[in-house]
Amino acid sequence: MKLFIPDIAYINPKSLNYNVGKTAKEYLEKLHVPTIDSRKVEINGACPSENYAKAKKTIYLTVNAQKKLRPCKPSADYQFALSSSCPGHCEYCYLQTTQGEKPFMKVFVNIEEILQVIQNHIDKNLPNITTFESGSITDPIALEHLTGNLKRCIEFFGKSQKGRLRVITKYNNVDSFLDIHHHQHTKFRFSINTKYVINNFEHHTASFEERIAASRKIAQAGYPIGFIIAPIMIYDGWKSEYEELLSHLKSQLKDYHEEITFELIQHRFTATAKELILTRFPKTKLDMNEETRQLKWGPYGKFKYVYPKEKSTEIKKYITELIHSNFEKALIEYFT
Hints:
alpha/beta
């Protein structure tokens, strides 16, 4: 797919104290993207849906001053951010309710300071290995062409004895990672789903075929790989489409003989998210019928609607059987 180019870029003057900030600004100017030096972002749409659409085409070059990283279970020990938000318009995204009405993209340019914070957390946990997730509030590959920061991270972790990196993406611009001496210290996980889910709910992301082709490139480059199948949805023909997904994935990875991990997440939503989704996507096909779901208490203090137990058990059993019938060295890390 084409690389994301914003409609406008706001630039925190502090970011120009860093080489990445200067280079990113020059790159944007060559593309004739309007830039505004400012310590705040202004988005003034006529309505909430317009604010959302404009925000998704706006970036803010700035710095990440976070010194203490948040835990990130079950994915990793900690999470860190190279950016926030992403250019994708995934209708079900759990970030819908956490990034406000105007989820513009912050792109952090102080990579050396971010890596120093990571090193501090590694040192505090010695002699144990410490794992880090880079995609909890963003998709780092979606914005990589603006900074090259993820490549720097992979190089850093490649040299680290006790640090490991986990990357998650729905994008396919992975070529800059293929010749890095990563020493298998970075694991790529691709978020995949059926064509129905991708085409109807994951707007402005890589296609079904593009993601699988990218996973093949990463596998051939010797990285550990995994897949997040999320959100798993029940709809007419869902079983045959998930069978097609895993069969096609097997055919593309037939030369990869290492372990492949899978993370399985059923579709869920909160009452707050439902209201926001219907505002932003009034014609959505998402099944958010509360009467056909059951409530489950979430880890962040909110009830969420999930499939009833008999349906979720059916999903887990069916997808698990598909995975193990297609991949000899599959490890299912969790189902939720």
